[in-house]
Amino acid sequence: MANNSDRTLEDWQAMSRKYWNAWSDATRKAFGSVLPEAPATAAPWHEGLEQWSRMFAANGSQNEMVERLMAGAKSYFAMLQSLAAKSAGQGAAMDAQAWTNTLRESFNFPGADAGLIDNPLARAMREIAGQGAKGFEQMMENLAPFTKQAHALLGMPAFGYLREHQEQYQKFAQAMLDYQEQSNRYNALIARASRRGFELFEDKLAERGEPGRQIESVRALYDLWVDAAEEAYAEIALSPEFREVYGAVVNAQMRVRKHVQQEVERIATDLGMPTRSEIDSIGKRLHELRRESRSRGDIAELVAEVAALREEVERMKTAGTKSAYGASAAHPRKTAAKSVAKSSKPRKG
Amino acid sequence: MEPIRIDPARALDEAVRAQSKLAAGVRTLQQVEDVDYGVTDKEAIYREDKLVVYRFKGKNKPTAKAPILICYALVNRPYMVDLQDDRSLVKNLLALGEDVYLIDWGYPDGADRWLTLDDYINGYIRRCVDAVAKHAGVKKINLLGICQGGAFSLCFASIHPQKLQNLITMVTPVDFHTPDNMLSHWTRGMDVDLFVDTLGNVPADLMNWCYLTLKPVRLNQQKYLGMLDILDDKVEMENFLRMEKWIFDSPDQAGEAFRQFIKDFYQGNKLVKGGLKIGEKDVSLKNITVPVLNIFAEQDHLVPPAASRPLGDHVGTTDYTQLAFKGGHIGIYVSGRAQREVPPAIHDWLAKRTK
Question: Strand pairing of B87-88 and B82-84?
Answer without folding.
Answer: antiparallel
